[in-house]
Amino acid sequence: MADIIQLLPDHVANQIAAGEVVQRPASVVKELLENSIDAGATSIKLVIKDSGKTLIQVIDNGKGMSATDARLSFERHATSKIRSAEDLFSLNTKGFRGEALASIAAIAHVELKTKQDQDELGTIIEIEGSEIKNQEVTVTPTGTSLCVKHLFFNIPARRNFLKSNNVELRHIVDEFQRVALAHPDLEFLMYHNGSESFNLPKSNYRQRVVNIFGNKTNEKLVPVEEETEVLKISGFVGKPEFAKRTRNEQFFFVNNRFIKSAYLNHAINSAFDGLVKDGSHPSYFLNLTVDPKSIDINIHPTKTEIKFDDEHTLYAILRSAVKHSLGQFNIAPVLDFDRDNNLDTPYNFETKSAPTPTVEVDRSFNPFREDKSLSRSNGSTSSYKKEPAAQWESLYVGLESKGTKTENDFSEVRFESEPENTSLFNGDKQIENKQTTYQLHNKYIISTIKSGMMILDQHRSHQRVLYEGLLKHLTVKESVSQQLLFPLSLEFSTSEMDILTKLKVDLEHTGFVFLSFSEEKIEITGVPVNVPESEVSIILEQLISDVEQEVPDSHFSATDLLAKSMAKSLAIKTGQSLSRFEQEHLVNSLFACKEPTVSPTNKVTFITMSVDDFDKKFI
Prior knowledge:
Blueprint: H1 10-21, H2 25-38, E1 43-49, E2 55-60, H3 67-72, H4 100-106, E3 109-115, E4 122-128, E5 131-138, E6 143-149, H5 156-160, H6 165-182, E7 187-192, E8 195-200, H7 205-213, E9 221-227, E10 232-238, E11 250-254, E12 257-259, H8 262-271, E13 284-289, E14 295-296, E15 307-308, H9 311-328, E16 371-375, E17 381-385, H10 406-411, E18 437-440, E19 444-449, E20 452-457, H11 458-476, E21 481-491, H12 494-502, H13 504-510, E22 513-517, E23 521-528, H14 536-550, H15 555-570, H16 580-590, E24 606-610, H17 611-617
Parallel strand pairs: 1-7, 11-13
Antiparallel strand pairs: 1-2, 2-6, 3-4, 3-6, 4-5, 7-8, 9-10, 10-13, 11-12, 14-15, 16-17, 18-19, 19-20, 20-24, 21-23, 22-23
């Protein structure tokens, strides 16, 4: 039998490796930014065109590379950070596997310009699909500039799986923010299609957070500081009243590397237990410093997950540190057993006794005397004379002097009554206002039908009713607004404002009226009918969360998602008591919908039980 196992060509192996390293343009941005940081750069510029599909360029002022290193950097498993297997357990750099540049060069057009400080001329290398097209000397500033053009040009199937430009840009911004937050001592700039998106100068950590997420973030932050032999914690958590429905402002950094950890996130949530509403998520920007030997970074291709030696200890320390900070800054209620000295008895009064109160009574006081004098305890006297009461008969004098008799007044009063409608058959009495619906546990509505009984989920049913109504307004572009007495001002981060800007027209079709739309703040003067003013911020936050999670690609799906999100926010909640009229109206409105059987999220809205089903229960 012939041998069937063979070695893959290098360009095929690189394309397979690219599947792990490069999932989308944001993956390239992450790898290139981390390489610039490892090169010792103090200023890093990111240039994006068409959300990274056309161009991704990273320019830094790092130490650069020689001509040999520049050529060798595109080989597989070529790295300057690892010398032996033991180095894997003491990593202090970002990239270390040596697969990033080789994988990127296999699926894109790459142009590298680099120069070291001591050299007069630099090197330029042009690669297309792992094939080196050109290498020569060039004039370039100290540092490195790497352009990645036409990503996935030779893998059209992967390119077709990319999302819309808005979605891909959102992922790029997320990666840029993570790297920028981890290194506030470096300068970062980002440009998209020629316009400046971020300009982050060197600053402290608090200022970096404010520069990225808006000026209002400053008042939300509570500092967290803790240092032990195992773990050092520094950073900030958000105040409970500013908890959001999205997880956009949750960042863990371990040794200046962004990670995702559901276990450590649970520690934060337990520290906020009882302080935030259900469905809301607290914000946090925490830097954890641990011994590099106690963690394993190389367990995930994107290096966003880390394995800790002792997670239980880190959990306990992190939870107590956050809880302590919330109590220290009077955010969470605490028991303070320290005595306030201001409440102590002064020294001069310790031996003195309190005076005994005395009660003096004037035994000669008689309120029924016409003339009397009152003597008070301070010695002063005052007298008054009681006026004689008028005869009570005088109160009724003149009532009959107007020439009309009182008994005739009431005799002229007439009452109108509707004629009584009797049934054609005396035995069949009509029963008015007969109740046909009942509410069970403030969650379900029970209605009788001819074959038996129907049970509706009030939350899902109302979602369907609102969804079809909102979708109609969005499609027809006609809506009714109720004006607010005073404009409502709301502030959002830069990324959240981008989402709201794209949905502004659709929001106006639902009934929102915007007075202004700035970079970080919006002013609302009108809201849809039946939307309370207090619910506007919750609706918009829920909308932002849904857009980020479901990432719609087309305009139709964005409109559909807007209707779903608003219906979910405005629908009757479980636990809300409904009157009989409201119950009947909800039932009638549901069955007036085009699809009454399922909610907007394709969940069942009602079930039916026939009389036969009940009979079987009693067998």
